[in-house]
Write a structure and sequence with these properties.
The chain is an alpha+beta fold. About 50% of the residues lie in helices and about 20% in strands. The protein has four helices and four strands; from the N terminus they run ααββαββα. A four-stranded antiparallel beta sheet has the order 1-2-4-3, with helices on one face. The longest helix has 18 residues. About 5% of the residues are buried.
Length: about 110
């Protein structure tokens, strides 16, 4: 298992994955924070490229809203994890800025 961990670290360093995350992260976070202008979004939280939109507490939203969000995202080719009152967006760490911007514009 140590060999696998060392190989993973080597790949992360050689492929400059951390640098890519640091490059894409500000655009990703800033764009998702702009979604707070919508009444349904109560908060945006996260770190790096793992961001969650939190539903506003004061809103009564039908339970099917989560499945509607999931269906729409799947139709667009986006991955979203729905957890209770959150929509979590986990893009791959190797996502390039242009693809990230396309993804964000779909929202």
């Amino acid at each position: 298992s140590c060999v696998a961990a060392l190989k993973s670290i080597e790949i992360i360093e050689n492929e400059k994955i951390l640098e890519n995350v640091r490059n894409v992260m500000p655009y990703f976070q800033d764009h998702l924070k702009k979604l707070m202008k919508y009444e349904i979004v109560g908060d945006v939280r996260g770190m790096g490229l793992l961001i969650a939109l939190i539903k506003a507490d004061n809103l009564k939203v039908e339970r099917s809203l989560g499945s509607k969000i999931d269906e729409a995202c799947e139709e667009w080719g986006l991955i979203v994890r729905l957890l209770i009152n959150m929509a979590v967006f986990p893009p791959p760490l190797i996502i390039k800025l242009m693809k990230c911007l396309i993804f964000l514009n779909l929202l």
